[in-house]
Amino acid sequence: MRAPRTRIQRRPVHGVLLLDKPLGLSSNDALQKAKWLLRAEKAGHTGTLDPLATGVLPLCFGAATKFSQLQLDAPKTYEAIALLGTTTTTGDAEGEVLAQREVDPAQLTPERLAEVQRQFTGPIRQVPPMHSALKKDGKALYEYARAGIAVEREARAVVIHALKLAPVQETLGRYAIKIIVTCSKGTYIRTLGEDIGAALGCGAHLTFLRRIDTGGLGVERCVTLAALEAMDEGERMACVHPAEILLAQHVRVTLDSENAGRFLSGVRRRGPWPDAPAVAVFGDDPHALLGVGHTTAGELVPDRLLSPLEIQQILESTPQVERGILEAL
Which entry of 50, 92, 195, 213 is annotated as an active-site residue? Predict the structure, then answer.
């Protein structure tokens, strides 16, 4: 007989864990593992990474889930290797080979690669791959692909903010290129690799994909699941960043206790603020994130707010607890 499973006692955790997602694990599996390790009640990720991709995956816990959309919309930077001369059904090494072609070394000169970089920098259009989670008629495209059905997809507009291509030597002496790209949301790096391979006249598929930055959150700040597992509970919690790490691009506004309490009740506040579409609002007694809003015509308008309970739980997890803004409610 199996021993009964130990029931994990969940607890409120509020903040952001910057995870370096490992190879072969889905984003949701990585989220569930981290959630279990932290014993967190509520968690969500900020957009998926393919199982064959590694790198930055911000995981939001508790109150931080209210701001996860900001990371979904943020520009992202990837590092990839595209093996030239072979195309596959999935655009990566997991798929079956579709075609193989000779690679012309003349297509890999610095001048030619610079020309291709220019071709794929700025606003471009991409046809989403069949092996993607994009939905058509309520079904994910990869479900059609697994059933051997190809459906028509409309090209979508995306923006390549920066692109760098460089030749690299793959194992067995095959030709490959390293791609470093900063792009808008909705960009498929597998499709970009395929399109670059087509522009070079030989086709390509990705053999390596790593996200190294999302919205200014770099991989050097991330922790791996293996490292997290090896930590004790206090060390794990020390890896959880405050929710405001997601709000670096927001204008900061700080309110006194009375105005903070009214703002938390959803009441607009008046003040000498210039118009701003994205504002992070803090209370000063104690210092605490209250939520986000926007300012227009001298008014601070609430958009997404933390609850008094969430604020209290965050304050209780810090060394010194003061009650100012909560008592003003």
Answer: 50
